[in-house]
Amino acid sequence: QVQVVESGGGLVQAGGSLRLSCTASGLIFDGYSMGWFRQAPGKEREGVSCISWSGVRTYYADSVKGRFTISRGNAKNTLYLQMNSLKPEDTGMYYCAAAAPGVYFPNADTALNPFRYTYWGQGTQVTVSS
User: Fold this and answer.
1) Spatial distance between the Cα atoms of 121 and 64, rounded to a whole number of angstroms
2) CB burial class (10 A; 0-12, 13-18, 19+) of residue 109?
3) What is the distance between the alpha carbons of residues 68 and 84, in angstroms, rounded to a whole number?
4) What is the spatial distance between Cα 92 and Cα 128, in angstroms, rounded to a whole number?
5) Triad 48, 7, 56: Cα angle to 5°
6) Which of 111, 112, 94, 95 is nearest to 103 (CA)?
7) Angle 112-68-71 (CA atoms, 0-180°, nearest 5)?
8) Which residue in 55, 66, 67, 124 has its CB near the most CB atoms, within 10 A?
9) What confidence category does residue 74 fall into, taking pLDDT thresholds of 50, 70 and 90?
C-alpha cells in the first residue's frame, strides 16, 4: 500500500521561509517523478514544482521560480520543497504527489498537471501573513 505523507507547513510572515518534506512508502521511490501542488480556498489545485526520478530535471511554476527549490533524497524516500521569500499568495494546502512509475515529463505543462499524478498525500497547510 502506497502512503504519501507531507510535513513542515505552518504560519509564517511574508518574506519568511518554510521547508516542506514528503515521505513516500510502499513504492520504489527512485522510480517515480514527484511533484508539489497547492490549493487555495475556492481555487483549483495548481502545480508548484516537479522533479524527475533521478533529480536531474526540475520544473517550477512561474509564480515560484527563483523562490522555491525542489529536491529529493532517494536514500530516505523523501521529497523536499524549500520555500523562501514567501508571499501571502503562497497560502494554501500543499500536496505531495507521485506520478506513475517511469513517466517522463518533457515540459513544465505536463510536469505540473495534477492529472498526471497517481498517489497523493493529505496535504500540509501553509499560511503566509502580510
Assistant:
1) 21
2) exposed
3) 6
4) 9
5) 45
6) 111
7) 75
8) 124
9) confident
Cβ-based neighbour number of residue 107 at 10 Å? 8
Q: What is the DSSP letter of 26?
A: S
Which tens digit of pLDDT belongs to each residue from 15-34?
999 999 999 998 888 889 99
From CA 1, how far away is CA 28, in angstroms rounded?
12
- CA–CA gap between residue 21 and residue 39 (Å, rounded): 17
Q: Do 117 and 98 touch, CB atoms closer than 8 A?
A: yes
Within the chain, what is the greatest distance between any pair of CA atoms? Answer: 41
How far apart CA 103 and CA 89 sit, in angstroms, is 30
What is the DSSP track for 45-56? Answer: -EEEEEE-TTS-
